[in-house]
Model the fold of this input.
Amino acid sequence: MRKPRIAVHKFSSCDGCQLGILNLEDELLDLVGAVEIAYFLEATSKIQPGPYDVSLVEGSVSTPHELKRIKDIRKESGMLITIGTCATAGGIQALRNFTEPGQLAESVYDHPDYLDYLDLATPVSQHVKVDLEIWGCPVNKYQLLEAIIALLQQRKPNLPSHSVCLDCKRNSTVCVMVARGIPCVGPVTRTGCGALCPANGRGCYGCFGPAPQADLDAMIPLLNAVEEYPGQTVHLLRNFAGYAPDFRKAVDVMLEESSKK
Done:
């Protein structure tokens, strides 16, 4: 039987999620025996034209060129999977969505007129149909491997959706928010990192985006009560996954209520 043809594409990002694929090491050797990696510039300069059975897309859509390119990729892909928080929620690039990008360009670049960018840095799903989203900054390489294995086995991927808070319980990690009063968004953040930050005495930054059915209405007053400086809760939610709809709406409500006081 013909091996499924896979393409890995980069948009505005740091390449960390693509490196996660390469860091599979031993698993990658088995993987290349089961699929044909037809396009993956991070790994090889050899390019095979589409169509592709699966396209993995890292990064946000931040430029007019990327907007056109993601539509072309969608047309030549049987399945399109976004990997990482940049692709699923805009990522770090989307921080500029909360300010004026023109002012940022003038502050950073000597010749901002050379730049060609969109007003907003956005997730891939805002422009084309996405078949599966795998969150994370960077993406959990084993979740990505599970998605590819599920494709080969023609089944639905078994990806966890509980919160980071549950990981702390399972790992017997003392809650940094309860024990030390450190702000932590773990209770409303999707699992995937293994609760890395709380295990090292820091609060969760929300790298994997909002957990499904996260109760932000209940979480925000708790965060406000332990803020280390005014507005810290807004900064925490407007971080790696700040443009994710649940986090974005929660902050909008907070700012609106604050403006009425």
